[in-house]
Amino acid sequence: MSEPAVHAFGLRRRFSHPSGDVEVLRGLELSVAAGELVTVSGRSGSGKSALLALLGGFDSPDSGRVLLAGEPIDGAPPWHTCAVLPQALGLAHELTVAENVALPLRLRPGTDSTEERVTGLLADLGVGQLADRYPSEVSFGQQQRVALARAVSGRPKVLLTDEPTAHLDAGSSPAVLRLLRRCADEGAAVIVATHDDAVHAIADRRVRLSDGVLSAA
Ligand SMILES: Nc1ncnc2c1ncn2[C@@H]1O[C@H](COP(=O)(O)OP(=O)(O)OP(=O)(O)O)[C@@H](O)[C@H]1O
């Protein structure tokens, strides 16, 4: 049997606060196959973002491991292996919308035409008219869609997204859902932390983070 695209086991993560330590993850286990879309729910502060940071290599667990396609991660992997869409988005503000989305393609040229891929993704997400603007010239909800386009443009094997519909109105969110589903259908392992029932509705599997571990939702 092939390795899961994402395999996390025994993950523990403790944070120190002046009021005392908090162990947010307590031996968490998660396996996600290529082509699978998994949503992670859990109350605010339960550790969903902390989990995504560990899976994406932006943070290190106190114990436990994360394997991507069977390989242990050592820092943040390249975008074509694992792309992260954090709540803070992390767009490059000195680049235009189109240049941001093109970035993963420029770092690792593949078979896609950069211009077609960028134009297509921005159009799919309803922000095609913003290609030449800078991130500071578009709304936060529009920036969120641009950041999603950038995350997926290089066709990552693993896509980690944190509340990708949080700032969208009802009219904008279906395009985001379609794109997340398409990424999984094209073979990516997609993990979405969300409070949004519409995202849970497109999942292959739903899990809930509570008391530092995951269970079926
Ligand atoms: N770098 C950090 N330093 C200290 N504490 C942290 C750090 N990152 C997260 N925490 C704490 O870990 C807990 C989990 O935070 P996290 O952001 O992962 O929750 P969440 O489930 O994503 O919440 P939300 O749904 O509100 O986004 C919180 O108590 C938070 O204060």
From TrEMBL:
GO terms for molecular function: ATP binding; ATP hydrolysis activity; transmembrane transporter activity. Gene3D superfamilies: P-loop containing nucleotide triphosphate hydrolases. GO terms for cellular component: plasma membrane. InterPro entries: AAA+_ATPase, ABC_transporter-like_ATP-bd, ABC_transporter-like_CS, ABC_transpr_LolD-like, P-loop_NTPase. The keyword NAD does not apply. The keyword Cell division does not apply. It comes from the Bacteria. Residues 6-217 form the ABC transporter domain. Signal peptide: none annotated. Keywords: ATP-binding, Nucleotide-binding. This is ATP-binding cassette domain-containing protein. It comes from Amycolatopsis alkalitolerans.
